[in-house]
Write a structure and sequence with these properties.
The protein is of the alpha+beta class. It has one domain: Nucleoside Triphosphate Pyrophosphohydrolase. The chain contains 4 helices and 11 strands. The protein is globular.
Length: 245
Amino acid sequence: MNERPSIPHDDALRERMQRNLDQHEVIAVADGEHRRAAVAIVVLRSDEGTDTTDPFSFTPDDMAVVPGDITGFDGSVTDVAGGASFLLCRRAAGLNRHGGQWALPGGRVDPGESAEQTALRELEEELGLTLDHSCVLGRLDDYTTRSGYVITPVVMWAAGEVTLQPDPGEVAHVYRIGLHELTRDDSPRFVTIPESDRPVVQVPLGRDLIHAPTGAVLVQFRWVALDGRAGERVHDFEQPVFAWK
């Protein structure tokens, strides 16, 4: 059972998120040497109790690369569904870059595409979910990664029942994470690493910790879209060393 009450997936939430995003002045990174990518934060409904098992398991050695105190964290994500939720993917292990890591659905921006068009296209290609531009609620700030990308997060709303068909070449598993998980008392966490003077952000979901860039995007999504804290920034949040490549 969820320790925190789920958030209803209803018109009131959509209107609140739309209003909060409209009030946020987005920081956009100008085109330059970085490659462009866009990710989708898709808010949809999920049912509590439908995620009692996680198809992935991790050894203590696997978790040893995570910086900071990981007491109570074993890498599993279960019992997080319920009410308004968002989609989070475990990337397929065979991918050339960041295989097996957490990611929001998304990918590289093709020539002539907007970030919104990319996010909608990638959502359909990766998860078999077709939405149109009317589902887009707004953008969050661009986030520059250590691997040479500028990521533009696009917030979307999916109404009604949603059926997903993940592409196994891209996605090992897709999770529906209740928005209430983002409001946990222990979220977000920050740790330090010797390789950087910037704080490494960690977002606890289930019994795992989500790091930047995905973790940074999720923190700003909570602060801006859910909490209404327009102007909160996350561009100084660091990634762990294992995500620098």
